[in-house]
């Protein structure tokens, strides 16, 4: 008999059936001791830090190789914590001054930092640093105590992971051969664990609130990553039903694979462009395997984050040239450096801010540090002759910012031509629409840009005034809210009125619930995780643009809540399937 059912957020498509593997917290309890040899304790502490650092670096390297450089970047923050002189000196001082054992000193100091950062409720960046310190401190403590932290990489049987949340360290170690899916108490579609699940192409449901209290180790669990359902200890009939659903889904994936080399055309013959988002040239493998027609977002900041110093013009030129050549003439939208917010550089001193996500970042840094920006622009311009380059400026709030950035680009182009360096004459220049001010003024921006690309992850959270990583307000991260759809319509209509195209590179572009609405709104280019491309191509082939326009109009003009919009689209998709 079926024991229990739970509902969560469908974070990664697919059906997983297996025995539950509870990812539980290790026992890191210890007793406070007064020590006779503080220097010996400091040596123990330093040794544990070094072991933890090597462990994190090994995980980072594994993720970069198995999943991609972009996903591996999250561990750089952990390495930085383990190298932070302020943290290490505070622990040393605690041992020497109070003559306590290393465990007590690590606990006291890291707890102080964690509480300090967590108290900054209006500063998501600092709260994320608290999570990094907690993850790192547990790893250090495990070495001091000789306790093993659960490592999913050691799993050698088919299981589904059940956890309160999955840390970057956890998700990095998931082996697709054995881990068939995972389910968590907390999280949303844009949380780290959800994005990692989509990269690994394993089913996931997050945000169930209580799965860890409902499931015991070894329970049979079904994870429905298509609908967000969790079934615990299903009866025979339910199990058979989901086994059939899994078989149908796998057959569907096989059918989608046949679309790899097909054009993306709607039912009534309209072509839309399907692109992929990448962080480094290494990500091109998945892009090409899934038949992307473009790179809709190349996040160049990873070039900066993966270096001890500012990357040289030559290093950047080689990276951009590689991507343009590999795409063989297909368009490549390169976003200029988007540092700041949650992306820090150890070699670039940024001011401490109450809210760095709304502070000194992206184009704001580039315009304040023009020499650094000019280096990137020169590298891009030199690479432009190797493919179809489109340059996009991020975090644009005013027309003056766009004009200033474009002026620097034009100046560097003129210098290169004067030096006898060949530069393409067909480079489109656009902006990322992620700040509501730019979206509202899109009708003016459209007169000066060549294109817009909507970054929905930030646009939605800024418009709704809700941090998408905050569990308490995650319900306000609503891509289908009529207000968001109205804003998108204004952006798209404004661009089209000036003969310009609009793309989207946020998570919403690959969301199967959103695709019919976005087509109806007139979106020209959808850019997403490479693993979502074929499914989206298949869905678009079934959609008529005129019918979708009617659907989008209804969502904006007749629906008043996100629930009403979802019901409207769900009803339509049911008729599509029948």
Provide keyphrases for this structure.
578 residues; Glucose Oxidase, domain 1; TIM Barrel; eight-stranded mixed β-sheet; eight-stranded parallel barrel; 24 helices; 14% strand; globular
Folded structure, characterized:
With 578 residues, the protein is of the alpha/beta class. It has three domains: 110 residues, 3-Layer(bba) Sandwich (Glucose Oxidase, domain 1); 108 residues, PtsI, HPr-binding domain (Enzyme I, Chain A, domain 2); 312 residues, Phosphoenolpyruvate-binding domains (TIM Barrel), CATH 3.20.20. It is built from 24 helices and 16 strands. Strand 4, helix 7 and strand 5 form a beta-alpha-beta unit. The two termini are 31 Å apart. The relative contact order is 0.10. The model has no long low-confidence stretch (mean pLDDT 90).
Short account of what is shown:
The protein has 578 residues and is an alpha/beta fold. It has 24 helices and 16 strands.
